[in-house]
Amino acid sequence: MLLLVHLFYILGLGGTHNQGAILLEVNSTLISSVAAILRLSDDLGRAQNRKDGSYIEYYMRDNDGLSFKQAREHVINMIASEWKLLNKECFDVNHYSPTLSFYREACLNLARMVPLMYSYDDNQRLPILEEYVDLMLLNP
């Protein structure tokens, strides 16, 4: 979330102090959706191998008798809900602003990278990322 807020100001979208606060408040759904997708995907990708406060772990503690599979399904549904909010924010023509379109595209592209970044296999490797790198760098 902090990266996206900084990006907002680095791109010069902050304007004056009051104007920047208003624009950032308007885009708070955009920022929080991307941050939630990133955090929940991280927890989903590494939940079985970590005991450091993942959402899945706490959700299972709060809902006694819930299986790991059910908790994962809940997180997957939460990610889907955040994607709906993100898409609504990015593609709603009523709130379209040419000034913010690059920022929205940057946020959307960051969210699109999340599944790739957290597609671990059983060996905690990223085979899809390795395929992309091989495709981009090694194939002419």
How does this structure look, described?
The protein has helices at 2-10, 17-26, 28-46, 55-62, 68-91, 98-117, 127-138. With 140 residues, it is an all-alpha fold. It has one domain. The chain is globular, with a radius of gyration of 18 Å.
Describe the SSE topology.
Elements: H1 2-10, H2 17-26, H3 28-46, H4 55-62, H5 68-91, H6 98-117, H7 127-138
List the keywords.
single chain, magnesium, magnesium ion binding, 140 residues, globular, metal-binding, 7 helices, lyase, mainly alpha
Low confidence ranges = none
The strand count comes to 0
Percentage of residues in helical conformation: over 70%
Radius of gyration: 18 Å
State the separation between the terminal residues, measured CA to CA: 37 Å
Question: Count the helices. How many?
Answer: 7
Structural class: mainly alpha
Order of helices and strands: HHHHHHH
Largest sheet: none
Into how many domains do the coordinates divide?
Answer: 1
What best-fitting shape do the alpha-carbon axes yield?
Answer: globular
> Whole-number average pLDDT?
78
Q: β content, as a range?
A: under 5%
